[in-house]
Protein 1
Amino acid sequence: MFLTPLLTTVLSLTSVSAHDCRCTSGSGCWPSDSEFQILASKVSQPLIRPVPPATPCYDSTTGNCTEVIASWDDSVWRSDQPGAAEYFNYETYTFPNGTIQGCYLNTTLGIPCEQGSVPAIGVDARTPEDIQEAVIFARKHNLRLVIKNTGYISPFFTQFGFLRAD
């Protein structure tokens, strides 16, 4: 099948060694808004700005917390959320100093909802050309490329996110 060799190629082109330093969001090397606008003009869908799936439980303007709670362990629901990973613990980020950033479903912890390991911006890839543009952009700007594939065969749907790296 065409998709499997293509994704294998994408993954092999973006492998990261322990000695590589990738550009992180908020860093001076992070692409400018105008550079992201250029990327947006080259792909078939608008760029996405994923948020952690528990965000509606902290900010009701971003969605329905009741739906999030009811669907939290539903793998189909999670695959449809651009900011969700298969397992919610993969959405948190542990810094080298041991502190953890994330957005937890349990709002009573008193911890703010933060981006964690959820990519800051992404490409909703629907064509092989979208994949090529995402990989070229990530390589050009030294970004870690995160691939999320829903597993749907048709329509072709893969999300590429650009995220922090340490």
Protein 2
Amino acid sequence: MALNQSAWSAAPVNKHTVYTCTVAGTDDADVMTVRTPKTLNTNKPFSLIVYVPEDLSASGTAALDIWGGVSDSCSLATADAGTDAYLIAALSADLDSGATQVTHVYPGQLAGGLTQVVNSASLNVVVLPPYPYYIFNVDLSATLQDAATITFTIIQ
């Protein structure tokens, strides 16, 4: 893999914290972040924005997977191989042709009326168990056609 993953940076903005991580790749089929920082309160809701600036593959699809990490050393090597990390949501909206996806995450706080959404192309609201960490992966069905940088932003 030829991924270059930045550490998550945090900045206060109008009484919220905005976390940003960029991931650049060249010939990969998975573009994943490092684990979220300890300062992200995984018991509180947050919004995740995934910005894909260009067409990622000549022909294929790209969807967002959310992994839950259970240790300080959790990581993700490929879309199907996590160390102390487990796939907890797979969204099917296609990001391949260059798109921005906003997903609202509610860590197990909603009772009744809202069901956990898995494989959602339109309703980007997920109810997840509150894991100590999360890892986000843009899972491509084909390798990147060019070098690409994807920006992941969390607002809490």
